[in-house]
Amino acid sequence: MGVPFRPLSRRELLAACAGLIAVAASPAFADPLSPEARKLLDAMPGKAVLGAEKTTPLVTELVDFNAPDWRRSAFDMRELLAGDAKLAYAIVQTPRVGVGSIEAARVALAVLAMQPAKFGDFYLALAATTGEIEGVKALNVVRAEGLDHYKVFRAANQPDITDILTQGVALAAALRVLETPAYVIGAEVIAGYADLARKRALIAAAAR
Predict the structure, then answer these.
(1) Would residue 1 count as lying in a domain?
(2) Sign of the CA dihedral running 129, 134, 139, 140
């Protein structure tokens, strides 16, 4: 594409590593949702909400595009939203697998900021790809979805995107989860992939 991704600054790397160390020192599962985590979750910027409009999300998923089960979870989300018109599903970028994950998360956040109505299509199109996901692959999906990938690239490298990613790390630490996907469903925190049947059961319980 001829559009190199800007390397992460020392400040960005240190911020991400410090947050991940804090998460790694915590248990992998936290239940129930703590008041501190709820406060961070409610205030989290860059949170993509799909499904029912003007509805508080019943499900929030913490995402790393290179986590082993992310694609599976993305298609689960599609099934859940298709089957429940009243469901709102939020996505928070919490990349931790590597630099490629951070690059792709930057692109996703830029798409959300610039074209929120297009985010869901971009997200599922990215899930339909194969192999490792990094910035260039995410920008290729942006272009395939008819968005201006040059503008998205420039937006992806702005300081506000770095701030959102830093807050995502802080949220993961407060939730005391290391592995993604991870979910907040109602007041329950689920670390690691939950299959579609389990998510449906948790959503039904939280909706009561």
Answers:
(1) no
(2) negative
Residue 23 pLDDT grade (very low, low, confident, very high; cuts 50, 70, 90): very low
Residue pLDDT, tens place only, 137-169: 999 999 999 999 999 999 999 999 999 999 999
CATH code, domain with 151: 3.40.30.10
Does any domain span residue 157?
Answer: yes
The pLDDT tens digits of the residues spanning 96-139 come to 889 999 999 999 999 999 999 999 999 999 999 999 999 999 99
State how many domains the chain has: 1
Domain assignment of residue 4, yes or no: no
With b for 16 or more beta-carbon neighbours within 10 A and e for fewer, the 88-110 pattern comes to bbbbbbbbbbeebbbbbbbbbbb
Amino acid occupying residue 80: L
pTM of the model: 0.85
Residue 122: partners with Cβ closer than 8 Å, 6 or more residues away: 108, 111, 141, 142, 145, 147
> 61 phi and psi, to 5 degrees?
-110, 130
- Residues of the domain holding 146: 10-207
Q: Does residue 5 lie in a domain region?
A: no
> Any residues with CB less than 8 A from the CB of 84 and at least 6 apart, and which?
51, 203
